[in-house]
Amino acid sequence: MNQVCIFGKKGSIAKYDLSKNKPIWVGIIEAKYSPYSICQYKNFVLVFSYTKWGAKPMIHCFDESSGMLLWQTMAKLLLVSGYPFFPHYYDGSLYYLASSKEVAKLDLQSGELVYRNKFKKSIFSSYGMIIAGDQIYLLSTKDAKVLDKETGQVNDYPEILEKINLKDITSSLGNGTSFLSSISLTHPKDSGDGGAGMMAGADAGGGGE
Prior knowledge:
By secondary structure, the chain is an all-beta fold. Helix content is 0%, strand content 42%. The chain is elongated.
């Protein structure tokens, strides 16, 4: 098996074969941007980058097999500035909380934001998202809500309280998430050289080439 990793540096990322000591492909991002986090969903490589001092965060999406840039967008168009980005994958789309009171759906192939909708919440409640089967839930320690995947409408789901005590739950894992999916887009740290420090993401899908 080839030893394959994906590395990022200012202006680009590269899928690199360590066993042959050569790049398989190089993906170009804007010259002034430095990748600080890389993750992979299926055949999609998401790159989170920023300019000097952590300004103007961007998200780029590459095809993992070819290195082709599929789309790019400013992070502020997808979620509130400084809010952590914890996406969940289901049926070709990413679902996530765009703020403490907004749900969003992003088409992973095109980068199109399908919706970004507000929902009613108490100021004392904080929700996390979880996918179970084909349902997407928002859970707090006090109550639960269910998301309509097509419309983005969020409704109360009191039935779950009959099954579990939400106050006892301290963490969760549903389908649509993995270790690599929990990428936080908040407070990027400058490496001391203007953000040019290198971050590496293990290639979860290309090691058999």
